[in-house]
Amino acid sequence: MRLTQTKAELRAAAAVRPRAVVMTMGALHEGHAALLAEARERVGPEGSVVLTIFVNPLQFGPTEDFDRYPRTLASDLAVAKNEGVDLVFNPSRDELYPNEPSITVHPGPLADELEGMVRPGHFAGVLTVVAKMLHLTAPDLALFGEKDYQQLTLIREMVCDLDWDVDIVPVPTVREPDGLALSSRNRYLDDTERDEALVLYRALTAGAKAGMNGPDAVMAAAHAELEAVPSVKIDYLALRAPDLGPVIGPGEARMLIAARVGLTRLIDNISITLR
């Protein structure tokens, strides 16, 4: 495994194909390991897996946790080595943004809903760094977790609209045995908050079980679970079509939630079948 920290080193090292990339902000956990394992499986022993680690300042708002976001490079490299990563790209801020970018990716109207409603400008920052990483790593496929479902949806749209020659591969959310979605921010939770955070998954699964009774029953079941834990402050709870448009009739749908548990903001989502 090779660690690179400049764009020149990356270009010199990333030559083997097929090539898969997994983009992260570090603080790797089992969810990231699942992405890396899937990447390794898809490219095979002769292919190349590239891991990027970069805490992207463009996607953090002025009151968000950029400065305290966990940076754990040594343990991240151990995870990467264990999962068969060939190349790690860990640039500095000045390396990736030598000048404050005046041109960024405009993510379209979906970016102003759900997460974008709570975090204005977030997805412009996300898509800008993803576009840069796709350009720099030139992969055949890029893997993203379904936990950040709106992000995944917007990346798919960007790649389609801009005719990017790369396959976007979704990987299911990895959870703790009790259902809590793995997240780098879970380490901020104390024991009480960790127990309270489980209500997100309980609400989602209650909604999924009510799918046979239609959208109103789904929302009612989820809200009933959330009301039992008033200390958890909900930013949004939404039921959408798989492309995050409005739900139209029976079929597959996606329920998404964002909430604040203490000082920590968590997101999650689940697939639902509406009858």
Overall structural class, as computed from helix and strand content, comes to: alpha/beta
How many domains, as an integer?
2
The CATH architecture classification of the largest domain is: 3-Layer(aba) Sandwich
The end-to-end distance, rounded to whole angstroms, is 49 Å
CATH third-tier fold name of the largest domain: Rossmann fold
Number of DSSP helical runs = 9
Proportion in helices: 25-40%
**In percent terms, what proportion of residues is strand?**
15-25%
Task: Offer a few descriptive terms.
275 residues, alpha/beta, Rossmann fold, Pantoate--beta-alanine Ligase, Chain: A,domain 2, globular, six-stranded parallel β-sheet, 2 domains
Kindly describe this structure.
The chain is an alpha/beta fold and 275 residues long. It has 2 domains: 2-171, Rossmann fold (3-Layer(aba) Sandwich), CATH 3.40.50; 186-274, Pantoate--beta-alanine Ligase, Chain: A,domain 2 (2-Layer Sandwich), CATH 3.30.1300. 36% of the residues lie in helices and 21% in strands. The chain has helices spanning 7-13, 30-43, 73-82, 93-96, 115-118, 122-137, 149-161, 191-209, 215-227, and strands at residues 2-4, 19-24, 48-53, 87-89, 141-145, 167-171, 233-240, 251-261, 264-274. The chain has a 6-stranded parallel sheet, sandwiched between helices. A 3-stranded antiparallel sheet has the order 7-8-9, covered by helices on one side. β3, α3 (73-82) and β4 (87-89) form a beta-alpha-beta unit. α6 (122-137) crosses α7. The longest helix has 19 residues, at 191-209. It is globular. The chain starts with a strand and ends with a strand. 37% of the residues are buried.
